[in-house]
Amino acid sequence: MTSKPSNPNQEPGLDHEKEYRALVRSIRWTKGFGLLFVQCSPAEGNRLIERVREDLPEKRIEVLSLRESIYSLYDVVDALPNKDQIDVLFIQGLEYSLYEYEKTQLWDEPSDQYTYSEKGIPQILGNLNLGRERLAENFKLCFVFLVPLFVLKYLARRSPDFFDWRSGVLEFVSDIDLVEKETFRLIREANNQKYLSWTQSERNQKILDIQSWSEEPNQSSERKAELLIEQGNLLAASQEYESAIISYDQALQFKPASSEIFRNRSDILLKLERYEEALTGYDHALKLHPTDYEALVSRTIILLHLNRFEEVESTYEQISKLETYDSDNLYVQGLLLKLWGIKQWNRLRVENIQQLTHAVQLISGNMNQESLIKGKLEYAKKDLRESVAQAEEKHQQAQKKTILKLTEAIQCFNRCLVLQPNNGDAYYEKAACYAFQNQIKDAILNLETAFTLSPNYRQVAATDSAFDSIRKDDRFQALINEAES
Amino acid sequence: MSVLDDIYNAFEPEPLPAGSPVYVDCRAVRGGSDVLVELGKTIRKSNKYTCQLYTGHRGGGKSTELLRLQKNLEEQGCVVVYFSAEDQDINTEDVEYTDLLMACTRHLLEKVREADPAPIFSWLRDRAKAFDDVLKTQISLTDPKVEIGLKQFAKITATIRTEPTQRAKLRELLTPYTENLVNALNEFIDDAYKKLPKEKTKLVLIADGLEKITPISRDGGRTNHDEIFIDRSSQLRGLNCHVIYTVPISLVLSNRASDLMEIYNCTPQVLPMVMVRSRDNQPYQAGIDAMKTIVICRVKSIDKARGMAIEGEVFDSPETLKQLCLMSGGHVRNLVLLMQTAIKYNEEETLPITNDALLQAIRQLRKTYRDTVNDDQWGLLATVHQSKQIRNDDAHRSLLFTRCLLEYWFDGENWHDVHPILLGVSEFKAAIAKVSL
C-alpha cells in the first residue's frame, strides 16, 4: 500500500478526539516509567482525568493536585502512601510553584518578570532537571502533567533535560465558548479597587491566570487587549509600574484606539512623576474620547502641579460642563478643587506678600532720603496706607476665590457621600477644606467621622499642612491624641 | 496490536547501556567523531592525570557514548567510576564547586571499596566539629559508612545555604577547608591506586550530567557554569586520577571557550548531530541511512517484528520513513520522540505506521519547538538558515541550547542550521521572506 507523498510542511489541524485517543494510547502502552505533558485549562484537565479513568479501568490511576508551591517533586511522590501501586499519576497545579517563584524574585529589570528569564530558576525546575534519572529509576509509573502553556514554556527553557524525556506534549485547546466564557469572567470580575485590597500572592495568581487565557490560540484581539489591560492594572496595584506600562503598551498593539489604555498608562506616569509624558497620554486619551472624565481631571491635576493656571481654568470649564453621577469622579473632582483652591491661595498670598514687601521697601527707601519733609512723610504714610489697603483687598479677593473653590469642593464631596456613605476619604477631605477656612467646628465634626471610618487617617492628619491653622486648637489636639478604643 | 506497543516501548529516551544490540555507530556521519578515540586515547596514553571536558547537544547520545567509553576503558585496564549528578547533590541556583567535589567524593567512596576511607572520614569529623562550634549544627557521624556521613553533610550544607544569613558563615567555614577536602580525597585516591587489582593500572572518574545544571546568568555576562568550571578549575583539576566532566554546550561555545582550552589543556569534545541534509539543503543519503538504521535496529529488537519489511509493513511507505529521518534533524532523541509520537497517533493501532500519523507527530513537535522560540528570535533563525553560520554571541548560544539551531560536522568543518522542523512554522516563513528581500 503506497500513499501519495504528502508535503510534510503542510500541517494537519488539531483534532480534539484524535488527540484524546493518542493520549489514551500513550498511557495504555507505557510500561514502567513514562512522561507525558498535556496542555489544557484546569477545567479541561479534570474532564480528561474522568474520561481516562473510564476508558482505562485496568490502570491504577491517582491524581496529585498541588495547591501550593513545592521544591522537590521526587519527595512529594515518595511520600505518597501507595506509591508502589500506581500505574498513572496525573499531576495538576505545578503552576503554583512558579507563581510563588515569580513573587519572591527581585528582578532588576521589569522585563525579566514573567519572561522565563535566565537570571534565576525556580527550585522545582532545577531539581526536576537534575533529578530525572532518580525519578525514572525509582518510580515505574506514567507521569502525566496537566499544565497551562506558560508552564510548558518554562519547562522547555529552564528544565530542558527533564522536558526532553517526554513521550509527547498533547494539546487540548478549550473550545471557543469556554475561552470566551473564562475570559469574560476575568474581565467582568475586574475591579481596580479590589486589586488594591488583595494580597500580593492573590494578585500574582490573577496575573498568571490572565496570561494563560490571553495566550489561548482562539483568543480575539479585542479580548487580548482587555486581558492585557487588567494585567496592567494588577501590576500597577502591585506597584510594578514599569511592568504595568509594558502591559499597556502590549494592549495598545491589539487595541490602538483605546482611550482607557492611554489613561491608565498616564495614571502610572503621573505616579512616577513623569508629568510631560503623562500629559501627552491624557491628551491622546482625550482625542479619542473627549469626555473622558478621569482623563480630564488627571490632566488638570498635572497642569495645576506645573502651575499652568490658564490651562487649568480652561480644562476645568470642560469638566464642570460634564454632569457626573459617579462617586469616584465626584471625589476626584472635589480633590481637584481643593488643591486648586489651596494653591491659588498660596500663590496669591505669596504674590501679595511680595508686593507688600516691595512697597514697604520703596517707601522706606524714600523715607531715608533727605527729601523727607513733613509733607512728604504724610504722603509716604498715605502711600503705605494705600498699599496696605490694596493688599487687604487683594487678600480678601484671594480668600473669596479660595472659599468659592473650597465650598464647591465640599459640595462635590457631599454628593459623593450621598452615593457612597462610608467613604472615609471624602470626610477627611471635607475636614481639610473646613480647616483651611478656619471653620473649626465643621472641621472637627468631619474629622471625627473620618477617623471612625478609617483610623489610619489620625496619623495622616497629625502632619497634614491643611490643618496647620487649627492645629493649636484644643479640640483638634484632643481628637488627634485620642487613643484607639 | 501488541507488536505496536512493544515497538513503542523499544523507543525510550534513556541512554543505552554499553554493548546494547540496538546501538548504531554513527561516526561516519558525525564528522568522524569518536569518543573512544578522543577521550579514551588521551587517558590510555598519558602517564599523568588528565582532566577532560565532554559536551554535545542534549539528547544527542552523550551518555550512551560515555557508557561505551566506560566499557572500553574497563577492558583496557582501568577502573572506571561513572556517576550522573543528581538533584540530591546539587541545587542549581546555588551550586558551588564544593558540591561537585563532594558528589565525586561520595561516588568514589561508594564504588572503590578497597581503599581506606579514613582520610575522608577524619576530614568530615573536623568539619562536623567546626559546624557544631560555629553554626551550632549537630552532624552525628555514628554510621560507619562514610558515604552516608557525606550525604548527611551535603544535605545539611544545602539546607544551611538556603538561609541567607548562614550562607556567608558557611562559605567562610568551607572554603579554606576545601583544599583539605581535595587533599583528603587525594589521599584516598592514592590509597585506591595502591590497592587496584593487578591487571588494573588506572582510575578514571566520569562525572556525567553536569550539563543538566540549568545555566543562570550572573552579572557581567557570566554564568553559574563559569563560576564552577572556570573560576574553580584548579580544584576541579586537582584530583589524582583521570577525570571526565560533562559540561553544557553553551559553555564550550561561549567566549570563555579559549579559557577552557587553556585551563584544561584540551579541546572540549563536542558530539555533533548526524548530518541528514547538506549545506545546500539537499537530503544527505549517508546520514539518512544512519538514522534509518537506528530505527530499524530498534524495531528488529522486537521478536515479532523481526521478519517484517520495514518499508511496507512497519511503515506504510519509504517516504514516511524518510520524512521521519529528515524531520529529526539528525538528532537521535528527536528521532526516537517522533517515532513514539507517530505510533501514538496511528488510528488503526496496528502496523503499518501511516503517513498521517507521522504528520500529526511532526505537528506536535513543531508546536513545542515553536513555543520555545521567543518572538524576537525568528529573524536570527532565518539568517542562520541562509548563511549556515552562527555568530558567537548570547542570542545564538541560547538557540543552540534549546536546539532550535543544530551543529553539524563535515569534511573537518563545522556548520550550523535551523532545526528542519521549524521550517514549516509560519513565523519562520515570514522571517525568511523578509530576509530574502
Notes on the protein architecture:
- The complex is a heterodimer of chains A (485) and B (437).
- Chain A is mainly alpha-helical.
- Helix content of chain A is 66%, strand content 5%.
- Chain A contains 23 helices and five strands.
- Chain A has helices at residues 16-29, 42-55, 73-78, 95-104, 123-130, 132-138, 149-158, 160-164, 176-188, 192-197, 200-214, 221-237, 241-254, 259-271, 275-288, 293-305, 309-321, 327-367, 374-419, 424-436, 440-453, 457-463, 474-481, and strands at 34-39, 61-65, 88-92, 142-147, 168-171.
- Chain A is elongated and about 120 Å long.
- The N and C termini of chain A lie far apart (89 Å).
- With 437 residues, chain B is of the alpha/beta class.
- Chain B has helices at 2-10, 35-45, 62-74, 97-111, 118-135, 146-161, 164-194, 224-230, 233-236, 249-253, 257-264, 285-300, 318-327, 332-345, 355-372, 378-387, 394-401, 426-436, and strands at residues 51-56, 78-84, 202-208, 242-246, 269-271, 405-410, 413-418.
- In chain B, the strands form two sheets. A five-stranded parallel sheet of chain B has the order 2-3-4-1-5, sandwiched between helices. A two-stranded antiparallel ribbon of chain B has the order 6-7.
- In chain B, a hairpin with a 2-residue loop joins strand 6 and strand 7 (413-418).
- The radius of gyration of chain B is 24 Å and the shape is globular.
- At the A-B interface, helix 1, helix 5, helix 6, helix 7 and helix 8 of A face helix 1, helix 13, helix 14 and helix 15 of B.
